[in-house]
């Protein structure tokens, strides 16, 4: 759909950035930059991050959420991101989809966590309902009663971000780096990670089909305008990212605090 059609249908424009294998920390820096220092609508789609990486919410405590000894021993990176939400371990098979929007982008949408969550749930239901019993359960995307998509959000005065880690596939052994969180969704029912999660590849025919269906769903609300990731750097948008990699010293200090 071109800009002429955008005016005709009065749909807002959303810049679309497709990336492959960009490290998740770099992606988080880009997202925060666009949330805090830009005014446009964005969809960032990144397929895979090069190595298994743990990503915690802004208030996450490593001692409560990860098995620090094994994380340090195996040199698994741990990132504290700028948004809320839970803890995930992501890798080359994770599909990341991020929506960054201005207040007026979605008509009548109240800028509070639950209305945004409900709206995105409808968006992905439109994209995925052909492949299984898709549901929004609390703050998760599930097939039947198994989670395949974890979400996090941040809301500013005039903008919001909603980003999702979709588990296309994963190494079950990597889930051992994560502890059972102190707070978890009621529908989890104390299930282990292996019992609680599912792989998208068992429900959706291919990554390309998932991406196509997601973009088709977005096009009912926005005119998508492809943008190259390198072109964003030319915008000269100032920012100071807060997502960061935790140091080995920080993790060791956390470990000592739990054994003291």
Automatic annotation (TrEMBL):
Signal peptide: none
SUPFAM superfamilies per UniProt: Class II aaRS and biotin synthetases
Protein name: BPL/LPL catalytic domain-containing protein
Pfam hit, one: LplA-B_cat
Organism of provenance: Rhynchospora breviuscula
UniProt domain BPL/LPL catalytic: residue ranges: 38-226
PROSITE patterns: BPL_LPL_CATALYTIC
């Amino acid at each position: 759909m071109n800009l002429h059609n955008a005016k005709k249908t009065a749909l807002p424009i959303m810049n679309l950035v497709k990336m492959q294998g960009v490290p998740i920390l770099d992606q988080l820096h880009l997202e925060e930059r666009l949330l805090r220092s830009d005014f446009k609508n964005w969809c960032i789609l990144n397929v895979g991050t090069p190595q298994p990486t743990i990503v915690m919410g802004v208030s996450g405590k490593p001692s409560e959420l990860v098995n620090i000894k094994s994380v340090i021993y195996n040199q698994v990176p741990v990132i504290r991101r700028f948004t809320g939400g839970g803890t995930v371990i992501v890798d080359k098979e994770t599909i990341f989809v991020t929506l960054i929007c201005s207040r007026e982008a979605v008509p009548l949408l109240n800028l509070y966590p639950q209305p945004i969550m409900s709206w995105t749930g409808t968006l992905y239901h439109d994209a995925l309902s052909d492949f299984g019993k898709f549901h929004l359960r609390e703050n998760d995307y599930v097939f039947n009663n198994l989670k395949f998509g974890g979400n996090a959000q941040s809301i500013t005065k005039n903008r919001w971000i909603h980003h999702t880690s979709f588990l296309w596939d994963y190494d079950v052994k990597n889930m051992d780096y994560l502890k059972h969180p102190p707070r978890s969704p009621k529908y989890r029912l104390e299930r282990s990670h292996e019992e609680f999660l599912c792989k998208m590849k068992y429900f959706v025919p291919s990554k390309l089909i998932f991406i196509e269906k997601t973009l088709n769903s977005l096009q009912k609300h926005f005119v998508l305008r492809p943008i190259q990731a390198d072109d964003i750097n030319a915008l000269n948008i100032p920012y100071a990212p807060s997502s960061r990699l935790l140091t080995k010293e920080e993790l060791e200090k956390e470990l000592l605090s739990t054994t003291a």
